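BUG: 3D viewer hangs when loading the predicted structure for this chain

Environment: internal workstation, default settings.
Expected: structure renders.
Actual: progress bar stalls at 90%.

Input used:
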Amino acid sequence: MQNISYYHTAFVAYLDDKIQVKEPASLYDPIHYILELGGKRLRPLLTLMTADAFNGDYKHALNAALSIEIFHNFSLIHDDIMDDAPLRRGQPTVHEKWDINTGILSGDAMLIMAYQLFEYYDPNTFQELAKLFSKTALEVCEGQQYDMDFETRDDVSVDEYLRMIEFKTAVLVGAAMKMGAIVAGASKEDQDHVYEFGRLLGVAFQLQDDYLDAFGDPETFGKQVGGDIIENKKTYLFLKALEFSNEDDQLQLQHLFGINPSDATDKIETAKHIFQTSGSADATRQEIENYTKMAFAVLDELSISEDKKDMLKHFGHDLMNRRV
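Structure tokens produced before the viewer hung:
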């Protein structure tokens, strides 16, 4: 296996070569824009790494990796519309830079493009990839619907929240890794184990993202810090703060997550203060660590060499220690 930067360079070069602006520009310019914004490229890198880990040619997995990246960015365009988010990776969101209708249609085109990339594989591989992709795409939609439903509910449980982030985020990480294993011809058992590793790592990743939404560096986070608080999202931070707080703080927190002030500065700062003083922030960091450890434990089940397991573990450590 190569180091992360090697896969990143190879993937970005392939993306730049495959994704060309064409007519009508009003449809394809937004697609090119969102894909060129960069981001962590977490999911496609995992696809390439996994293919390599199972002794496949990572180059053969480039189309599967690109499919995952295009689908992920399609979902971001539509999520940003639903959340009315102004920023994505530090730049205007597609619907802000163009308009909502453009965001919807360009996103739809990206979903079709993602499926088209499976056509480069033999029929059996195509079928396995498409079956996994369809299952995962539907689960992501279910997760997004749960997320929206939770905004208007006052009785969301921690278990419900964890199920929501599993569907909205973690299953796509698991699918990215399983696609690499499928392309490499790994056994069904190894495919399932590597999916589970990715799923657990994906939950840890989303918990970390939720934590950084409140406590990340606004200069480097890339998104609007406090966005989840503004949108009244019932994150793990919020739910644990309700569980741990005294009655006065519980009432204040419930009040804050039931209003939408034009200037949310005080709302954000007050919520963050309760997250910290209640112990919710510490509990969230602990849960991130717990899921990361569970993910690493699954690596023991994979029939790959120890040095390859160490590479995947190193990637997970880097991911969980990020601050942006």
